[in-house]
Amino acid sequence: DTSLAEVNSFSPSMPISPSSMINQYKFEDEPELRDLFITVDDPESHITAIETFITYRVVTKTSRGEFDSSEYEVRRRYQDFLWLKSKLEEAHPTLIIPPLPEKFIMKGMVERFSDEFIETRRKALHKFLNRIADHPTLTFNEDFKIFLTAQAWELSSHKKQGPGLLSRMGQTVRAVASSVRGGVKNRPEMFTEMNNYMETFSQKINVLDKIAHRIYKEEREYFNEMKEYGPVHTLWSASEEDIADSLKGVASCIDKCCKATEKRMAGLSENLLPILHEYVLYSEILMGVLKRRDQIQGELDSKVDALANKKAEKDLFSEEIGKLEDKVECANNALKADWDRWKQNMQCDMRSAFTNVAENNLRYYEECLATWESFLASQTVDLHVEEDSEDRP
């Protein structure tokens, strides 16, 4: 198996130090360079006769001239976020749209509609909107503006103005027709490299995601067992007068290690698992973006082939080919710029996540080691005191 670093054969060189990596991209988060701030918070449960759902408050503060006000507050449910994502994909088929959390969380992690599930989703929705806000093109999308500013009834009315069934069917038919034509003949080498990169990246990130979830599950099982292990020593001390203090000391050490383990689990669930799973979703999105680019290329290739076989309609085909060439060039340029931006963000996120995990692990083992060393030192002192008292006449 090759490492992710080896897969990154055609990426720009990145600094080795994690701190220098973070500093390099710090400018993206500088407040003075931003003119759009979005917060997702205050989840509320709604129970009707038909369904139960959660809405989130979306607060927007902006200094942009195209907004009528400097601050907006609306409530949105998950379906509204799905609508926004689909509209962005429809308007920008060759841009990398940030992923949304899945409708249902991974089985065995947390219960749906539990506080933990709602908080995990809230953070993901907050990140989704802010990634769009930071994107140089998506941030000016009209549907994004409507999502941030329209009241519930206005948004509902706007949703009904989407493409009709026939239009959607036409898009589906074109996509299917394009996909069955076979491989793209004239795909530029850069996009072949992107496809190869994403196939390997997808495989590796999925493996990492599964391993991380398995580690978290095993850690939780270890934590649950440790919680029962400490009280056993406390109960034991009640029936062993001679070693009662030692047994209580062991119980105290186990309790401290238990708390340290709980902190480490929180670090995994808050910092590592969401990042890995986000990039699992990103890998699926990027494969879809590359396919859509290939579909545009395939449409151009088919027109060129048709022109070669129909000389009588040369002028008409030449005009269509010119438009398609422009469309392919726009798609290529959009994807290339977004690809470089995504790669930099991905590498920064991965370095930060793994550095954070390493630091958390160091703190965990140092804390547990100090706890047990302190206990052993106290037992050694007690042992010497007992030996000295026995040696006296």
Automatic annotation (TrEMBL):
Question: What is one process in the GO biological process aspect for this record?
Answer: endocytic recycling
UniProt lists the gene as: SNX7
Annotated ranges, domain PX: 34-155
* Record keyword Transport present: yes
InterPro entries, per this entry? AH/BAR_dom_sf, BAR_SNX7, PX_dom, PX_dom_sf, PX_SNX7
Q: Which Pfam families match?
A: PX
Look up the signal peptide feature and give its range: none
Q: Which SMART domains match?
A: PX
Q: Which GO terms describe its cellular component?
A: early endosome; phagophore assembly site
Report keywords, A-Z: Coiled coil, Protein transport, Transport
Superkingdom assignment = Eukaryota
Q: What is this protein called?
A: Sorting nexin-7
Q: Which residues form a coiled coil?
A: 307-334
Its family?
Answer: Belongs to the sorting nexin family.
Q: Does the keyword Protein transport apply?
A: yes
Tell me which species this is from.
Eudyptes sclateri
What are the GO MF terms of this UniProt record? phosphatidylinositol binding
